[in-house]
Amino acid sequence: MKKGVIRPGHIQLRVLDLQAALRHYVDLLGLIEMGRDEQGRVYLKGWTEIDRFSVVLRQADEPGMDFLGFKVVDDATLGRLGEELAAFGCQVENLPAGELKGCGRRIRFEAPSGHFFELFAEKEQTGKWGVSEVNPEAWPRGLQGMKATRFDHCLLYGVELPETLRLFTEVLGFSLAEQVLDDAGRRVAQFLTVGMKAHDVAFIEHPEKGRFHHASFFLETWEDVLRAADLISMSDTSLDIGPTRHGLTHGKTIYFFDPSGNRNEVFCGGDYHYPDHPPVTWTADQLGKAIFYHDRQLNERFLTALT
């Protein structure tokens, strides 16, 4: 049953050097700067996104993710979900409208995995960048770098996957789209969606709570992913792995790092999921193929480089 969460809304990332981060996220990834605030945070978006921003960069002493936000249908739903989160056992923090520039009031909570999430109902909508809402052209002129279309999802490493799954499915209305089971049938990875996408957020079991693996951005075609690989080499950006295909979700992908060590992904394609679909299951003995379908073996850095 739908609980009122619509879609991903934004992510706030910590970076060590804001100017270096902007060269990466704007010049290389192709996100568009939409403003700054009195705290020095920078607001970015992909060109197809309607909201004012989807990525917030904050300069800090260590990299990683501060929080991931999801949009809900209206303010009444926001209030109701705040009560349900508290009843579940989450500590809920209320943040006033305007604390994020152009965003309405938010409620923030910590999941059992150790990650912080937010819900909001209102955010200023500025429309697609460079494209009219009436008789729109196919794409805008002036895009840079990889021409990322949107912020798509996150992969997070942490503890207490069963309780995190229960929170996201029973309270927030997500569906389990894909999973990895170990030899004992215990779930060690879970891919959750609130719509038709292969996943909006995913979790992998890890002994430390609250770790960040990657933020992912959508490209339109496999040719765009290959072009992204060229740009990674042209700019001497640190490459993790790819271009390749996943077994999980079947997306075509490449992974690389921002100057602070936060991992990014750009990808295209991928499976879809309706709420009545059973979860797709991979077994741990096939984990190499599940993650890197072509190589069929794991990249140790992919599993251990976290922020």
Automatic annotation (TrEMBL):
Keyword terms: Aromatic hydrocarbons catabolism, Dioxygenase, Iron, Metal-binding, Oxidoreductase, Repeat
Domain named VOC: residues: 7-122, 150-269
EC number: 1.13.11.2
Domain of life: Bacteria
Cofactor(s) for this UniProt protein: Fe(2+)
Pfam families: Diox-like_N, Glyoxalase
InterPro entries, per the entry: Catechol_2-3_dOase (IPR017624), Glyas_Bleomycin-R_OHBP_Dase (IPR029068), Glyas_Fos-R_dOase_dom (IPR004360), VOC_core (IPR037523), Xdiol_ring_cleave_dOase_1/2 (IPR000486), XylE-like_N (IPR054560)
Key word Phosphoprotein present: no
Catalysed reaction, written as an equation: catechol + O2 = (2Z,4E)-2-hydroxy-6-oxohexa-2,4-dienoate + H(+)
Molecular function as annotated in GO: catechol 2,3-dioxygenase activity; ferrous iron binding
UniProt cross-references to NCBIfam families, sorted A to Z: catechol_2_3 (TIGR03211)
Family that this chain belongs to: Belongs to the extradiol ring-cleavage dioxygenase family.
Quaternary structure note: Homotetramer.
Entry protein name: Metapyrocatechase
